[in-house]
Task: inverse folding
């Protein structure tokens, strides 16, 4: 192993340690003290409940755990984990979307980021056809921010709109109430296909005791107003009465025990491990994000048997090669790949090849993996005259219209229109994963500093106060810091621009899970609209 490889490895291991620290913080808001507080109420941390809910010895694929860090709402800097745990696990062999309010984070109330996370998980569930289990324990809307969480589309009401529509499609919406469900939050119980409530822990009412006293003068306890007994024995708003959390978890499993088994709509070959070990990813990906990579080596550490069946390998030497196209298998599932190579600048030949490949995979109903490591499309007169605009647009159109499951994995720069052509967030990939090497922004810090500096220089010249060299340097550095900070996977993950920041050694398992889940619904017929060619 070379020195450079050793250095890369040490660098990425250190980066992933930083990720571990953040993941840990998200799991333990307020540390042991908060866990002790829960225990006094007869409750366990929500991830412990989820672990019991899913099938024994299976994994819970938790989404966006670093959501909410550094969001800086008025008076609240961090909302660890966005205040709600979401993720995918198996219940009686069926992939299920699981939600759990973390009552340790401001009583599980909904901030804008909480809603975004909840909506994202519901969107995945609806698109992939997953049943949903909601472990509800929330003070409802975070009241100081009501204007940002209550009235709009994708705000509080959309949670229930989504529940209603998913249940109408036959996707079970099961609520296990293990705490407060007040006002709008009460619908989490009443909108469920079946709701489980826990004696003396769960409450559900449109107005809590203080509001009732104010409105009608009636003095009543929470238990008598809307506890588990009231709703399972009198109002009929909930369906199952349980004495504690353990019993409630078992009841939810029982409710879902007679669901039809899911099936994958794609032939699955026998799984073969990669020949190249996962450590090679740590060694081969350079620490410097702008430095070129050999994406074929990366794919070899992810693909079954390290096999890549390449498409148009010899097309336009040196330019077509900046995107590698072909098929791999991941845990037996055949996947079409579009992968940025070297420094990742997309020449028109590469864009043309990628668009062709997306269309061919869509015809064959083979899902797509976009491995993004591109700072953008090639600029300049030669490129413009050769049609980089129209070929890039064809690629964007093909990505937008491809009806097959699409997943984006970012392992390097992710800038400008390359973010579109390589299936960024706006192109609604079924899943979007970042790594510690991903950098998502409109352009790199260096480029942005150059553009913004030239604008600032012009302004200052017009005002008769030209910038000094020191001022220019300070301006440049400030812009680079800002852009590089905002492109970082922690910044993006905190704002839910990814579904998870993956460690390199997690990539294969997560992709296998995500493709499997994305293939639970049948794939329709392709249609691409007005391509130019
Ligand atoms: N908006 C903003 N903050 C809220 C909140 C809300 N809806 N509900 C609770 N909080 C905050 C509390 O102020 C407290 O903040 P602090 O830690 O900075 O002091 C924190 O969340 C914990 O709340 P607390 O009341 O101490 O927890 P609890 O476990 O004793 O009770 C509830 C939990 C949910 C039963 C209780 O907080 C409650 O009734 N909240 C109001 C619910 C409501 O009326 N919601 C209507 C909105 S739709």
Result:
């Amino acid at each position: 192993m070379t020195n450079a490889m050793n250095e890369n490895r040490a660098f990425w291991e250190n980066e992933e340690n930083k990720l571990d620290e953040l993941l840990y913080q998200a799991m333990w808001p307020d540390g042991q003290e908060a866990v002790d507080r829960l225990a006094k109420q007869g409750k366990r941390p929500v991830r412990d409940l989820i672990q019991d809910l899913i099938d024994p010895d299976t994994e819970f694929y938790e989404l966006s755990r670093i959501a909410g860090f550094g969001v800086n709402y008025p008076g609240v800097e961090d909302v660890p984990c966005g205040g709600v745990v979401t993720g995918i696990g198996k219940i009686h062999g069926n992939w299920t979307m699981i939600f759990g309010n973390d009552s340790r984070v401001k009583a599980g109330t909904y901030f804008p980021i909480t809603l975004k996370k909840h909506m994202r998980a519901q969107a995945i569930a609806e698109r992939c056809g997953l049943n949903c289990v909601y472990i509800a324990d929330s003070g409802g809307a975070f009241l100081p921010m009501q204007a940002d969480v209550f009235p709009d589309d994708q705000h509080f009401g959309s949670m229930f709109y989504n529940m209603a529509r998913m249940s109408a499609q036959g996707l079970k919406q099961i609520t296990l109430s293990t705490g407060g469900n007040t006002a709008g939050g009460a619908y989490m119980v009443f909108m469920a296909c079946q709701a489980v409530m826990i004696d003396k822990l769960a409450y559900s009412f449109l107005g809590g005791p203080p509001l009732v006293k104010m409105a009608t003068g009636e003095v009543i306890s929470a238990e008598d107003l809307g506890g588990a007994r009231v709703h399972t024995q009198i109002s009929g708003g909930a369906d199952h009465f349980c004495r504690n959390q353990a019993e409630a978890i078992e009841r939810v499993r029982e409710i879902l025990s007679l669901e039809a088994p899911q099936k994958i709509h794609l032939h699955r070959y026998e799984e073969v491990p990669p020949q190249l070990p996962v450590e090679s990813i740590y060694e081969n990906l350079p620490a410097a994000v702008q430095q070129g990579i050999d994406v074929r080596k990366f794919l070899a550490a992810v693909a079954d048997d390290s096999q890549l069946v390449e498409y148009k390998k010899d097309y336009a030497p040196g330019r077509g090669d900046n995107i590698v196209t072909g098929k791999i298998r991941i845990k037996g599932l055949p996947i079409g790949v579009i992968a940025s190579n070297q420094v990742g600048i997309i020449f028109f030949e590469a864009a043309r090849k990628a668009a062709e490949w997306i269309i061919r995979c869509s015809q064959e109903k083979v899902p797509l993996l976009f491995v993004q490591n591109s700072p953008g499309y090639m600029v300049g007169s030669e490129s413009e005259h050769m049609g980089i605009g129209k070929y890039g647009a064809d690629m964007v159109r093909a990505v937008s219209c491809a009806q097959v499951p699409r997943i984006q994995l970012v392992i390097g720069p992710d800038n400008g229109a390359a973010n579109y052509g390589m299936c960024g967030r706006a192109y609604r990939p079924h899943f979007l994963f970042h790594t510690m090497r991903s950098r998502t922004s409109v352009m790199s810090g260096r480029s942005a500093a150059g553009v913004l500096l030239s604008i600032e220089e012009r302004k200052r010249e017009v005002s008769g106060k030209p910038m000094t060299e020191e001022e220019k340097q300070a301006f440049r550095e400030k812009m680079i810091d800002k852009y590089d900070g905002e492109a970082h996977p922690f910044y993006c993950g905190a704002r839910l621009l990814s579904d998870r920041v993956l460690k390199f050694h997690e990539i294969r398992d997560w992709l296998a899970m995500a493709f499997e889940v994305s293939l639970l619904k049948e794939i329709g017929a392709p249609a691409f609209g007005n391509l130019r060619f």
